[in-house]
Design goal:
single chain, about 170 residues, about 20% strand
Length: about 170
């Protein structure tokens, strides 16, 4: 099973095209009035504060959306304290008026913990891939919920001379 995961992961690493910390910016509300656009500085500061959280790991996924001076947090985390820590650091950023926290705390499960470790070894143990684990926040995040594995992150933008990525990854049952 793990050798099949490893084969899929190797193919996926060249096919992943999601941003490491995705966000979207929307500038208009439903009433036809324009909200203030978030500044590039605000977007960068939110990202910086999230990636600097001390317990943010390869097994967590954080993303956000900035709408004017409002920030919505998304993702999945293993530790409940990471959810509240993320909200607190974003609330403290100058220029943020409100934070909506939609981060999901993953259920506690020894089986999921075992799967996290096994998938981590399958991804980062492959020749040439351990370099992706060296960053303070690895570029590939492994989210496990009730035995279901989701890979989030970005690697294609870190490979020199890549002009486009085609994802032909197919997941098959073992």
């Amino acid at each position: 099973m793990l050798h099949k995961i490893r084969a899929h992961v190797v193919a996926a690493l060249l096919a992943l095209s999601l941003a490491g910390m995705p966000y979207s910016v929307q500038a208009a509300n439903g009433a036809g009035q324009k909200e203030p656009k978030p500044t590039n500085k605000l977007v960068k500061e939110v990202r910086h504060e999230l990636v600097m959280l001390p317990y943010y790991s390869v097994f967590d996924n954080l993303s956000y959306k900035v709408e004017g001076d409002r920030v919505t947090l998304y993702g999945q985390v293993v530790r409940p304290t990471l959810k509240s820590d993320a909200e607190n650091v974003v609330k403290s950023i100058e220029g943020v008026a409100s934070v909506k926290n939609e981060i999901e705390v993953l259920p506690t499960s020894p089986m999921d913990d075992q799967l996290r470790r096994a998938v981590f070894r399958a991804i980062y143990g492959e020749n040439g891939l351990p370099r992706y684990a060296l960053a303070s926040v690895p570029s590939i995040h492994i989210i496990v919920k009730n035995g279901h594995v989701t890979l989030e992150g970005a690697v294609a933008n870190q490979v020199p001379n890549v002009f486009s990525v085609t994802n032909n990854l197919v997941i098959t049952k073992s």
